[in-house]
Amino acid sequence: MFVERLQKDNPQFIDAMVSLQQSGKLLPDSYAVDMEQFRANAKAIVDSANAKGIRLYFMLKQLGRNPVLAQELVKLGYAGAVVVDFKEAQVMMRHNIPIGNVGHLVQIPQSMIRDVVAYGPEVITVYTAEKVRSISRAAGELGKVQKILIRVFGDGDMIYPGQTAGVHLKDLKAFIREVRDLPGIQIAGITSFPCFLYDEKKEDIAPTANLGTVLKAKQILMDCGIEPEIINTPSTTCCRTLELMAEYGCNCGEPGHGLTGTTPYHVAHAQPERSCIAYVSEVSHNFDGLGYCYGGGYYRRSHVENALVGRSFATLRPMKVIPPSLEAIDYHFGLSQSCAVGETVIMAFRFQVFVTRSDMVLIEGISSGSPVVSGVWDSLGNKK
Question: Could you tell me the residue range of the domain that residue 327 belongs to?
């Protein structure tokens, strides 16, 4: 999906990955990150957000909840992490990373609420009054006031399977009346997901029906006498999306794939964020006229199509990828031609490292021509 963009944006990164893999410093089933380009991408996004008065929480589940990347983003001025679930919250808490938003896609388990509130996230996203009451009790015990975001939905909104949750617009006023006066609780704003997505027909990022729901919910809060501090409208957050967020009056985004230049928008458009991540493998064997390389990093929505195969940058050749069927374990990726065992395979596709068994490998020194592996982590943010 992203191989052509990677070749245009960052050929020196490709060269570095092949060299490191062939020298035994980069094992198969690794996602490699060009750290210099990652920082440049992140700075471009935060600078654009600051100019527009938009708060940013960074999303790192797709990058294996990596604490080093989180630390780099905090240094650049990001408000904190948006953690996709409570396990990611534990990783960030373990490494003293500020948490901006927790609870949006996966609520906090009851037994963790007190610890999370004590840690001090900027906001907790809630779906139910029961969860708000639990947060209220914890905040009261700790002598704190916890800000919350209400996740809302309306008729016709997009909700991905496995993410069905929220307060319907028609029930929002009643929900506000039920929770607004609970001790230790402050309603800070509204959120939904996804609020912006890439539109292939328009070849541009566009608002979804969910954004309309968020804006209606904002008005409901104001009608109830609550001035919303945070209008959180995540998905596909990058410099282009920030322009649209400012246009629609939104003030909080959550860059994830934007940080690596790998949103669908980046496939066809050269942007300030340049591609800086790729999947690295190695040819394992040939079978019945096809090559096979090591797997482990497959994500069923990856849209993987192409690979570059060779022992050096100069000898890389393109070929098609044959992904495993969805019901199979991704022990290997198929390749459209026979290959020499041990050749490097470079792919660039849509990824979610935290649902794989891959390693995260951070590479420094690419721009100077002296690339080195600065560290290796597993897919859940643990250093190896």
Answer: 3-34+272-376
